[in-house]
Every structure is written in C-alpha cells, then in structure tokens.
Amino acid sequence: MSLLVVGLSHRSAPVSVLERASLSTDAQLKLLQDTVAAEPAAEAAVLATCNRIELYADVDKFHAGVAELSTLLAQHSGVGLDELTPYLYVHYEDRAVHHFFSVACGLDSMVVGEGQILGQIKDSLARAQELHTAGRLLNDLFQQALRVGKRAHSETGIDRAGQSLVTFGLEQLAAGGDVQDWARGKRALVIGAGSMSSLAAATLARAGVAEVVVANRTLDRAERLAQILVEADGTGVSARAVPMESVPAELTRADVAVSCTGATGLVLTAEAVATAVEGRTGVPAAFTVFDAEAPATDDVRPLPPTSVGTEEGCPLDLAAVQQAPVQPTSGFSVMGEAAVAGMDAATLEQHAAWVDNATVDRRLAARRSPEADAELITALAATAATVGRIPERRRPESAPTPVRPQPVLFLLDLAMPRDVDAAAHRLAGVRLVDIESLAEASADAPMAADVDQVRRIVADEVAAFGAAQRAAHITPTVVALRAMAADVVANEIARLDGRLPGLDDKHRAEITQTVKRVVDKLLHAPTVRVKQLAAEPGGAGYADALRTLFDLDPESVAAVSRAEDSTEKNAENRGPA
Predict the structure, then answer these.
(1) Which pTM does this prediction carry?
(2) pLDDT (0 to 100) of residue 256
(3) Looking at residue 265, what DSSP letter applies?
C-alpha cells in the first residue's frame, strides 16, 4: 500500500472553483466513507480548509487510485470532473509526505507560516479516527505532520517570515521613515494574489493607504482578495480587482506598486515603468546614474563618453578634455574649453590639420611663421573672450552629478525571479526595492533563513518518516519468522521428550534454553540487518526476500499485521489525537 493525495488549493485553482468545491462537514464524512469503500483505497482522510481540499488515501494501485479519488472529489464537491480535473494536483509516496509536511509547516499557506493549519490537520485526523477510516499509515502520517509543524514554529521564525519580508520592504520604500506616515493616503497597486501579495495588500491596508487595486491573471482570485480587504475590520480601505491587462493604466495612477507573482519573465519592464512615471508627471523619466549609484572618486567624477579626440593620433591632451562644448572659431575646431587651455599656436594648428585630414604633420611646427602664429593666437583670444575668462591648462573640474528627485512611484518587488526590471533603479522619480536590495540592506533578514530552515526540517522529517514506514513494513515478516522458529524449537523439544522419556525437568529445561539461544543467535544478525536495509529507499523488497527464503506462510504474516492494527486502533479509540 502507498500514500496518495489528490487535491486542489489556492495555488492550483481560482477562488470561484474553490468556493464551489468546498465541502460541508456532512459531505466530508460521506467522502471518507465512500473512499474506503472504493477498491483501491484502504484508508482515507480529508483536509478541507477555505484555501484547499485534499483527499489522502492509502492505495494499492496508483492509476486506479488517482482516477477513483478524482471522481469521488468531483461527486462530493458538486463540480464536474471535466471542470475540476485541470485544477487537481497529485502527489504520491515520498512526494505526498513532503507536500503534507510542507502544508503543516505553513509553507503552502496563503500567508506563509500561519499556524491555523495545524488545528485543521488535527481536526481532520480526529474525524478520520471517529469514522475508523484512518489506519496505521494515515495515523502515523498525521501525527508526525503535527509534530513537524510544531517543530517548525518552535525552532524557526517561520510564523514571522512573511510579515518580516513585507514590512522590511515597505520600510525600505519609506527610506527609514514611519511606514504609516509614508503610506497614509497613497494609492496602491498589488500585482498577484498569492500568499505574499495578499500579505502585502493587508499590510498596506492596515498602514492607511486610501486604495488597493489587485491585479491577477485569474481575476477571481483578485476579486476574492479585494473583497477580503474591504471586509477587514479597522482599515476602511477601498479595494477593487482588475485583470493583468489593466496594470499599465493602473500603474500610472498608483503611488506604490507591490509585485509578487510566479511569472518566469518580467511583469514590469523598465520602459513600462518609465511610461507610467511620464503619465503621472508629464515629464519623460530619463535613465540616469544618480549620486547613490556612482560615488565620486578623488572628488572628480568620471565624464560621459565623448567622441572628441578619440581617434588615434589626436594631438590634444585628452585627459584635459571637458564636457561643455565651445563653438569653433577662426577656422579651427575647438570642441571644449580645456582643448585650447594653455595650448600654444603650433599645437592648435596641428589639431586643426588633424580635424581636416585625420592626420597630423608634426613637421608643421618647424615651418611656422610669425604671421601664422599671430593668426592662431588671435583666434585663441577670441575663444577666451567667448568663454568669459582667459583659459589655462588645469585639471578638469568635477562634473555635476544629478541628484535623484523625490520619487513619484514606489515599487516593491518580492518575487524570485524578479518581476520588475532592475533597470528601473535608474529611473528618475522611481524608488525600487527588490529581493536583491533587501538582502543587501539586511544580510540577516529572517525571511529567507527561516524558510530555508523549515525546508531542511521538512526534508529531514520526510526521510525519517520513510525509513520508519519501510522498517515497519518488514516487522510483521520478522515477527512471523521468529514465531516459526519458536514452533520449530517447541516441536523438537517434544520430539526429544518422546525419545528420552526419562529426562528430568532440570535437564529438559536446560536443553530447551540452549536450543532457543542457538536459534535466537542465528536469527539476530539477519533480522537486525534486514530491518536496517528495509529502512533505506528501495528496501521494501527485503520483506519479500525474507518470506521466500524461509518459506513463510503469507497468512501468518497477514495475521501479525491484523493483530498490530487491531491493537493500535483500540488505543486510538480511547481518545482522539
């Protein structure tokens, strides 16, 4: 038998389908009874919350189990199988265990790390126990899931992870100021309706934004989230849902936008953000390197690229070239004040010749005449008069670096991979905070560390559960083997009594004990080793090998299993977990 889960949740289905597929308590009880009555399933449990409906079962056939569980879900939910099937997910064996433990820890919840799911799992187990639809596998699974969830909350900060990420991101947008003062009266656009986007929307509503617009590829989910925001106590926020196609228009009207989707590509390109800023201000949002991104070096900021004198052979001192152009004068090209600052007439003439012919004849200096020098010096004087002062050779002055204007659009990108083009960092009027900048701002931010730690806990617990189940699978075979050995010993002692009728009780007891010790020692190493091997992945076949090698009666093994199940069930019936 193997664990199988078939279900749908907020991650796989639109809210409209989840609402229609919701199960009443009576419907859940009937579903459990019908599931264990179906041929592939021996055990069943239902986990039904506002965001998920999952049917867990111990089945002996995978394909038949998937078909049967899907059909039963459709029948009892009232949603047709054809309509329900596209939204169903299936997990089997170890993947099913991993999924369930992740659910118990809050990793799969709409709000990451929420603890309410543990109470719902406990209720689900109690319901299955009352109907006797939970056997050894599901009892072990649900009991361990509860322990894993409690461990995740006690050993990590998972219940604060989602809240920490959103709050920290908004604090970064507020540039260290009070988030409520910063958010008050703003219009917010939330892109996505998953757990993190929902948490961001709720946090913004509590912070005092005037309006929240929710955009999602599935409009039903956006409408559900908007409805929840409107109905929340104490916020008074206005909320509405829009399709994803409306994001460009809504971005133009929004003061702050939060995006956290599962998209593999960009949701907001830098061009789309620039268009939104231009729509708000009427001024194109230029891509600029601002003070924060380009710190000064030795009080001299790097100059923008220039084509002046970049070709090989230019006679000017390129290090002295300055940004502001000066119009050419007297027939030679002067592309900047520093280009003629302190130059002698011969150098200026060489530059003029180089501009005309892209070559420099350095023999010109030897053929200079006083008249030519006078002409060029006159031109230099005219240039100085245009500039307003006499130029001189000097180090270029520091080029002014543009100061970032106050932002008119705040962007918080909580997605990984990113939803918002990183180039938006360089847009005037935009403040962008994303996962990367959050990590830089706080290397010990709790969100990533806590989630990763919980994932490691889940992985460890899945491995432990699998090993325990595989070891338990071989236990009835080992018990049956030892029972057979005990019968062999008893039969041989009885045979010895027939051959040695005069054997006194003391000697008979000593012989019996000796034979038992021999048998126990012979069986000890194989049975211990087979349990160890059976606990490893792929170890289920060792039980079959043991039964074959010792020619064990399958009915004897089954009888041991039934006896153990009966003992466990009696213990469970004394009180729910």
Answers:
(1) 0.52
(2) 96
(3) S
